[in-house]
Amino acid sequence: NAGVTQTPKFRVLKTGQSMTLLCAQDMNHEYMYWYRQDPGMGLRLIHYSVGEGTTAKGEVPDGYNVSRLKKQNFLLGLESAAPSQTSVYFCASSLQGGSGANVLTFGAGSRLTVL
Amino acid sequence: GENVEQHPSTLSVQEGDSAVIKCTYSDSASNYFPWYKQELGKRPQLIIDIRSNVGEKKDQRIAVTLNKTAKHFSLHITETQPEDSAVYFCGAYFGGGSYIPTFGRGTSLIVHP
User: Fold this and answer.
1) Which end of chain A has the lower number of beta carbons within 10 A, N or C?
2) Which of residues 22-51 of A touch B (CB under 8 A)?
3) What distance in Å separates the CA atoms of residue B105 and residue A43, rounded to the nearest whole number?
4) pLDDT tens digits for B57-89?
5) Which tens digit of pLDDT belongs to each residue from A46-55?
């Protein structure tokens, strides 16, 4: 049982390049999330999904796209990377949302640097 | 939009002292409040949570209190130890159907030996 796995762990991009971060969970969780963590800013929600085939915008969605074609995977894409997207990205999942089974399990994080 | 305010941003204590971190939230309909701990270079992990039908919850040296009327909740750590040094995030769940968590900006707790 690996929990939540993020790939890659580190990546350096040049401005304008594109890339995809992959998040995979093996806990049969319905909800998945992408957060970015910047110093002094906490965890800010980029996009989330409440089930296979669904996605929704979070607090800071601009410049990112996501897809959830399979229940276990949640992909975060950067179409044209900008230095402002330099950050540590965390994927998380939960069994459900709301006040029921909503404990978040986080991945180990992906550190992205955009030059 | 809905938000969670967390204070202080940095907290420095001596080993053995108590530490208190406070959060306020804007949505009176929120009914679940988790606390996550993130050690340096690691992922956030849940350490304690509280639901709105409870005013206080304890787990060994940590406790959380909730005041729904004032819309604030606090994390209390007693007899702090160096391994308590970490960033702590409070969270609240807002309504709107999907009930997605929003986090405060975090508190960096430093426990000096």
Assistant:
1) N
2) 33, 40-45, 48, 50
3) 7
4) 999 999 999 998 999 999 999 999 999 999 999
5) 999 999 999 9
